Fold this protein.
Amino acid sequence: MIEAARRKAYGLALRTRRIADREYHFLEEHQWDSRDRILDIQKERLVRLLCHAYKKVPYYRSIFENTGLWKAGDVDLTRFNQLPLMSKAIIRKNFEALKSYDLSARRWFYNRTGGTTTGEPFTFISDYEDGWRSGGAVLRWMNGWHLIRPGDRELKLWGLPLDLYDGSFSLRSRFSNWASGVTFLNAWRMSEESMRRYIHILNKTRPRLLRGYVTNLYELALFAESNGLAVHSPTIICSSGGTLYPHIRRKLETIFCCKVFNHYGSREQHNVAAECSHFDGLHISAFTHYVEVIDENGVSCPEGIEGEIVVTSMTNYAMPLLRYRTGDRGSLTEELCKCGRGMSLLKKITGRSMECFRTRDGRIIPGEFFVYLFGVALDTGIFSKLQILQKDFDRVLVRAVPGVRDKPEAALEDEIRCKIRVVMGESCAVDFSYEQDIESLPSGKFLFTRCEMETGGSSLLDGSK
C-alpha cells in the first residue's frame, strides 16, 4: 500500500512540472515520425535557438554576421557548420559575453563539470528548463524504451560528494529520492566492505533499473563473481560515464543476467543518445540535440568514419553552447534502426577513458572522483588541462597545464592533497607537475586518470579480467 502511494505521488509530481511533462509527451509522439519529419522538427528548434543567440547573446552577434549565418534578418542554416567550434577555453575566456541578455528573467544556476574526456574543468550556466527538458524528460523517455516507468525502483552507483565532504543528503533530497524510487550508492567508496554491502542492498531493494559508471559496474560484477555472491537480476542495466567495451558488456550481462544498454551524455549536454533493445547504435535525441562528427580539420566525417563528436544542445537558452567540442570520438550512420524510430544513430562512441585507482587495502577509486574534485569541489579555473596518474599505491601525480597563472598557490596544492587523501589514504604522497601540454594516446583518446601500476586499471581496456 505504501509502495503504491509512493508511485502515485511521484507520478502526480511529474505531471505538475508542465514543461518537462509537455516535452516528454512530444518526444513520445514524434519518435516514430519519418527521418525527414524529425529533421524538419530539429531544424525548426535549431533555428529558434540561433535566433535567440543572435539577438540576446553578445558573443555570437558578430560571429553570425561574419560567417553569413545571419543574413537579411534570418538564419541561413547552410552556414551553420561555418561557426567556430565551442570549447571550454572559449567559455572561460568569454563567460560574460556568452550569457543571455534575458538571464534575469530565467531560473538559472551555475553548473560545474570536470571534463572527463579532455581533462579541462570549467563552469557554465544552465537554466532549469534545460534540465527539465533535455535532462528529466529525455531520460524518462529513454527509460520508457525498456518499459522502465517513473517511480520504478532504481539503484544508482554514482559519485556522491556529500558523503565525502559535506555530510549527507538534505531532508528534501532524501524525500525526493524515496518518492522517485532511487537509491544512491557511492561509487567513490568502492572497498570490498562497501561492495559487499552494495550487493546486499541490490538484493534487498530488487530494483528494475541498475544505473552507474561503467568502471564501477564492472568492478562490482568482478567482485560478485570472485566471491561467489548471488545477485538480483534487474530488468536492465544502464551504463554511462565511459566506454562500454564488448568484454565489459558481456561480463555484466553474465553476472547480472540482464541486458546492458549504453547511454551517452554529459553534465554540459544532459542526455544525448541511448541504445534501444535492437542495439543498432545509440539513438540521438534529435529533438533536443544536434550532433556532428568532424575530422581534425573541422570537416564533417562521412558515414561510418570516426571523428570528434560535436554537440549543440537546443534547450539551454541561458548560455547557448553552439557546436560544443565534447572531446569524445565516434561515428554516425544513416541507417534506420530496426525498432522503427526515425532518429539518427551514433554507431559507436570511443575516446572516453578513465582508469580506476586502487589502494593498498583493496579499495577501488573510480576516475569520476577526480572529475568531481577538480571540476566542482575545487573549481578555481586555474588549470586548463589535467591528468591524474597513480604511480604506486601511495603515490599520485597531478599533471597540470596552468591557466591564468604559472602555478597555483601552495595553499591550493595543500587542499588538493588533503582531499585526495580522503579516498587514497593519509599516507598517499601527492606530487604536481606543471606542463605546457598533456598528450593524448595514439588512438586520439585522452586518459583523464591513468593507473601505471602493474595491477592497475588497464583491464578495463584490454579485457584481461
In short: DSSP finds 14 helices and 23 strands in the chain.
